[in-house]
Amino acid sequence: MHKILIVEDDIDLAMVLQMNLSSKGYKVLIAHDALSGTSLTHAEMPDVIILDINMPAGGGLAMLKNIKLSIKTKMIPVVVLSGSEDEELIHTVLHSGVESYIKKPYDLEDLCRHIKAALHIKE
Amino acid sequence: MFKELKLGVKFFLSLILISIIPLVVISVFNYLYTKARLQESTIGNLRAINDSRAAHVNQFIRLRQEQAKELSGSYAIRLLDPQGANSLQLTDSIQRHIDSVYYEIKRASRSDYEYIDQPSGINNISIWDIHGNIIADTNRLLIGKKVPFKFLHILYEKGAYFMGFEEDPYTKEKFLTILDGVRNWGTEEYSGVVLLKSRADVLNDITAAREGLGRSAETYIVDKERRMITESRFVKDAILSLEVRTKATDACFSPEHRQGPVAYKNYQGRSVLGVQKYLPDQQWCVVTEIDTKEAFTPVIVFRNRILFVMGFLIIVVLILVHLAGRAFIRPILALRDASLNVARGKYDEAIDVQGKDELADLSRSFNQMAKVLASTTTQLKEKNKILEEQKEELKKKDQLKSEFVSMVSHELRTPMSIIKGSLSQLLDESAQNTKEIKDRLLNISLSSIKRLTDLINNLLDLSKIEAGKIELRKAYQDITGLMREVCRTFELQAKDHRIEMRCRFSAEPIMIDVDKDKMIQVLVNLIGNSLKFVEKGFIEVSAEDQGGHVQCMVEDSGPGISKEDLVKVFSKFQQFNHPLARDPGTKGTGLGLSISKGLVELHGGKIWIESEVGVGTKFIFILPKNSSPAK
């Protein structure tokens, strides 16, 4: 069973995502901020991370950089979930070694496809 | 070429031309006029002299002729035989006769003919018979000789008395010979000739009188063979050997004997002024000439004087023009330098203006222009600065706007994601959704929709406030009553969270002119905000009449806000996701405080926040009693 870590500051959305992915047969972990997300990544070593890039105080981007800098975690594929229109931010994210970039509101099928692809690459 | 010169030089040249040209014209005219007048008077003089000399020559010849006639008419000579058969006795008496006449002529003092009154007046008297034999002669050596006299018969036929110059065949001397035929006393037939011979240079006595003729003037006589028969003043032994062919003599000897030109080249090739007179009896031409140079000496002196004066004037004018030019050019150069300075942006270097002429005026206006330019430039720079600042501001605003749009998009997309995710989950048949899960998903969706609605409403409110399109429906009312009402609506909610809701108002009503709905909105936002964060303790709402205005306060015992976050509290979409924040249901839009601020300010009031981390937060706003919108 693949482990997926969801890092999303919106509690409701995190819960819905958890339900969505659990019913698809994944083991889902949740973090509500960048700090706990990072520590969970190191502790649990998830197979895929779904990261909301628009967390308060630029937390999403900070966490992404943190993960990609660490040798231990940089192989974990990251699927970025974003509601941002900020082109500069999108550009930065796309050049930070993320697997996929999905715009909110996400399409569940689409999300699953991206997760599968990310898992495939990892293996 | 003139165009390429510098202004100073142009000016210089123009002035010189203007001043010198009339001078030159006047001088030249004067010179030519004087010269013509001088020539006229010179010619007049020459003509007078020429006429007098010609008259003398005529007189001289006539005198000789009379003398010859006198001799030929004497009794002794008239006794000559027409056939030439003359007795020795006769010739002897003739010889004696001519000797005595010759002696008398030689001796006589003829003061009335001064030119003839010379010892050399007559050199020889000769009497020939009809065959040309010299029968009597003052030169006795010639007596008895026969002269091959070819003119004799012509002489007889024409009654001529003048022979012209003749070379004596025996002495080879040249003589001016005057003759007269002798007629026999009885038969009146030609029987001999009387000849009076003068030395060839006898006419010099007349022509050599040169009083009033200066250094180069002369009178000479030319015969029809164009030989000079008097001495030349300049050529030695000219008599009968110097040929004179000038325009003057050509004219003189032309068939009509016209007057020749007054200015021509003489026999020496020199330029002369001259007059001629033709003597028809002798077929001579009397010429009087003067060297042009000498004739025009006065005008040449005059000319030289003019040249000298002109040169002097030119130098004076040059100096004056130079000085005047500098006076003109200096201000122009100053203007040029000043305009260069202005071009370089130095407006404060004014021209030192002297005088009251047009250039000074120009300089003054230039200074004024520079002053105006300086102030205009300063104003422009200031305006530019303002524009630059405005541009920066606009840029900032633009950036803020795009950030705002980005934020709005984000804030809209999150609840939409929740709804979409929930619906997808509910529709997924493979998922084993329990009723509990289904209810939860539906509830979450509902609250998300509420969030979206709130957000849209808030956005509309905010945009209205910012655009100043909101209308306050003010009414004069007791604000404490209004606040009490709001407090009451929150009491139950507060109780649920075990929070004490304190409402502290004075007993007397505080009357104020406000829009009730908007005030309620402000209070709901502030109290709701506190309720979101307060874990335990209280929320206190109070109002205080401070004379001119009312101060309202919402105080809580929440976690407080750090100093760096305080400044951002009233910004849009600033949500402080405090770990202690309430459950998801209370999630706000991040616009409430911005709207509150806008509404308070619309009432002409002011809102601010005081907070201390770990102690609590105070939202305070004041409203003026006689509120008039700030903007």
Keywords:
A: 123 residues, alpha/beta, five-stranded parallel beta sheet, 5 strands, B: 631 residues, alpha+beta, five-stranded antiparallel beta sheet, five-stranded mixed beta sheet
Question: What is the fold's blueprint, element by element?
Answer:
The complex is a heterodimer of chains A (123) and B (631).
Chain A: E1 3-7, H1 11-22, E2 27-31, H2 34-44, E3 48-52, H3 59-69, E4 78-82, H4 87-94, E5 100-103, H5 108-122
Parallel strand pairs in A: 1-2, 1-3, 3-4, 4-5
Helix pairs in contact in A: 2-3
Chain B: H1 7-72, H2 75-78, H3 88-107, E1 124-129, E2 134-137, H4 152-158, E3 162-167, E4 174-183, E5 190-199, H5 204-207, E6 218-222, H6 247-252, E7 263-265, E8 271-279, E9 284-291, H7 292-295, H8 297-343, H9 358-427, H10 435-467, E10 474-478, H11 479-496, E11 499-504, E12 511-515, H12 516-533, E13 537-545, E14 549-556, H13 563-566, H14 592-602, E15 606-612, E16 616-624
Parallel strand pairs in B: 11-13
Antiparallel strand pairs in B: 1-2, 1-5, 3-4, 4-5, 6-9, 7-8, 8-9, 10-12, 13-14, 14-16, 15-16
